[in-house]
UniProtKB/TrEMBL annotation:
This is FAD-dependent urate hydroxylase. It catalyses: urate + NADH + O2 + H(+) = 5-hydroxyisourate + NAD(+) + H2O. The lineage of its organism: Bacteria, Bacillati, Actinomycetota, Actinomycetes, Micrococcales. It comes from Microbacterium dauci. Pathway: Purine metabolism; urate degradation. Keywords: FAD, Flavoprotein, Monooxygenase, Oxidoreductase, Purine metabolism. InterPro entries: FAD-bd, FAD-dep_Monooxygenase_BioMet, FAD/NAD-bd_sf, HpxO. It comes from the Bacteria.
């Protein structure tokens, strides 16, 4: 069977590897002209890492992952440690240690494992036609390709998403989450946080955080609540951060000082999409951000895309009625779970960014002196229900 995948990101390449391993002919198209991932790094919680293990990438991903043994929250103004605890219970309950990884490193690994000869860059999808026996993709340069099915892993502004919706459905629109995120990579600096900890400074509905990744680096990110459309000139460098975090603790100032905007500084407004049930039509289906564009507030965006790839692979390995039937079974496995986590992330973002000041202050108060048990429950709760467990669930110690 021939498969066209549109999108060479984490979701598209993982789906491509999964379907290749089942013996299918897979070609991936992407509009990017070279491997330039959006965002500096990502959180791979246990559910995402397990999919990569299943794809045969376990050792390589472990080498890319940072040693994130602990989690700490710090008062952004005073520098006081609110809580500091081990993440070992996450590993014990789920059976896999989580890793933060640099996105470019992971995406390069996955593209190489899939095979660069099967990836066509600089190809923008503009049309889809399903005649009931084959799907034809049309690209902006006028070229076409035909296959037995098409998987749209074409991101938050997906063309494929619109195609699979029922006729007469109102357009699915992205919704602004209320804040802007700045992120990048810097050298490890113990003045900011321990090299083995995810350290987050919090105050005023804002966050500044670092997570360790391979290569003696921190992945950093800042959240700044503000309206959509605030002007930004890349020449401003870290000036918006100095303004937003003026007077914050020395660790935050050290973080800002350590950023080289010419090397690694991204700015992105955070948007999501209210969950919707239709992921497949005929011989076409969607996965990744095309299916569940989410805010990063629970760190499950990439993991959900990897779960999609796992579920798609299992669906095609075990169902034989028809392509159309298999894609609907994949949809049935994924849509409710992914939608639930999108809404959890939205709720979490509302709590942490002071859109409800009372709720945010209550969260700050709950961090002070906690042993982390409640936070661990939340992290593990997001992982529980993953299809990767195949009904095995969690071990509660």
């Amino acid at each position: 069977m021939k498969v066209i995948i549109v999108g060479a990101g984490i979701g598209g390449t993982s789906a491509g590897i999964a379907l290749q391993r089942l013996g299918h002919e897979v070609v991936i198209y992407d509009q990017m002209r070279e491997n330039k991932p959006v965002g500096a790094a990502l959180s791979l919680w246990s559910n995402g890492v397990k999919v990569l293990n299943w794809l045969g990438l376990g050792a390589e991903v472990a080498a890319l992952g940072g040693d994130m043994a602990d989690m700490a929250y710090i008062d952004g103004h005073t520098g006081e440690t609110l809580c500091d605890f081990s993440l070992a219970p996450v590993t014990a309950q789920t059976g896999q240690r989580p890793y933060p990884v640099a996105r470019a490193d992971l995406q390069s690994l996955m593209m190489e494992r899939f095979g660069m000869s099967g990836i066509r860059l600089g190809m923008k999808l503009v049309g889809i036609d399903d005649d009931g026996s084959q799907v034809t993709a049309t690209f902006a340069d006028g070229s076409t390709d035909t296959a037995d099915l098409l998987i749209g892993a074409d991101g938050a502004r997906s063309i494929t998403r619109a195609y699979v919706q029922p006729d007469g459905t109102p357009p699915i629109e992205r919704e602004y989450s209320g804040y802007t995120n700045f992120n990048g990579l810097i050298a490890l600096d113990e003045r900011i946080g321990r090299s083995t900890a995810w350290t987050t400074y919090v105050a005023d509905g804002k966050r500044a955080a670092v997570m360790p990744v391979a290569g003696d680096r921190f992945y950093f990110w800042f959240d700044v609540p503000q309206p959509s459309g605030v002007p930004f000139d890349r020449a401003d460098g870290v000036a918006p951060l100095r303004e937003a975090f003026a007077g914050w603790a020395p660790g935050v100032q050290a973080l800002i000082d350590g950023i080289d905007p010419a090397v690694s500084l991204n700015r992105v407004e955070i948007w999501d999409i209210t969950p919707f049930p239709t992921w497949a039509k005929g011989r076409v289906a969607i996965l990744g951000d095309a299916a569940h564009n989410t805010a990063p507030d629970i760190g499950q965006g990439a993991c959900l895309a990897l779960e999609d790839a796992f579920a798609l692979g299992i669906a095609f390995a075990t169902n034989t009625v028809s392509v159309e039937d298999t894609l609907l079974r994949y949809q049935d496995v994924r849509a409710a779970r992914a939608g639930d986590l999108v809404l959890r992330a939205r709720k979490r973002g509302h709590e942490t960014h002071a859109f409800d000041p009372v709720a945010t202050q209550a969260w700050y108060d709950s961090l002070r002196g906690t042993d982390g048990a409640g936070i661990i429950r939340g992290i593990v709760g997001n992982i529980d229900g993953t299809p990767v467990h195949l009904g095995g669930g969690l071990r509660h110690t």
